[in-house]
């Protein structure tokens, strides 16, 4: 019984450490009329992590404790691909990204 309690406490402690080490970059992607754009690709290529926006244009990019912010690549069909320098970004603030419609036709 004692061993079970110790194991449960240890696993709880490890779970808290893992949860605390997770960092998140949150934001929203809008068009030029300030309307949310769903299904936009959000990539941090140097870290090999990415996500897509939900139906409301919101995204959460999750990374480990050592997440290094440098260039964020934002792309979506019908819009110009945007490369953002996010080296000086405060990861606690929600990022607002505005995409321009592409003038190139397929």
Short description:
This protein has one helix at residues 2-21; strands spanning 23-30, 41-44, 49-52, 58-63, 71-75, 82-85, 95-98. The chain is α+β, with helices and mostly antiparallel strands and 106 residues long. Strand 2 and strand 3 form a beta hairpin.
Would you kindly provide a written description of the structure presented here, covering whatever features stand out?
The chain has one helix at residues 2-21; strands at residues 23-30, 41-44, 49-52, 58-63, 71-75, 82-85, 95-98. The protein is of the alpha+beta class and 106 residues long. It has a single domain (23-98), classed as Immunoglobulin-like (Sandwich). The model is unreliable at 13-20 (pLDDT under 50).
What are the SSEs and their pairings?
Layout: H1 2-21, E1 23-30, E2 41-44, E3 49-52, E4 58-63, E5 71-75, E6 82-85, E7 95-98
Level of helix content?
10-25%
Structure class: alpha+beta
For the largest beta-sheet, the strand count, sense and barrel status come to: 4 strands, antiparallel
CATH top level label = Mainly Beta
**Total domains, how many?**
1
Q: Which outline best applies?
A: globular
- On the 0-100 scale, what is the average pLDDT? 82
Specify Rg, calculated over alpha carbons.
Answer: 18 Å
Q: What letter string, H or E per element, gives the SSE order? A: HEEEEEEE
Low-confidence stretches: 13-20
How many β-strand runs?
A: 7
| CATH 2nd-level architecture | Sandwich
**DSSP helix count?**
1
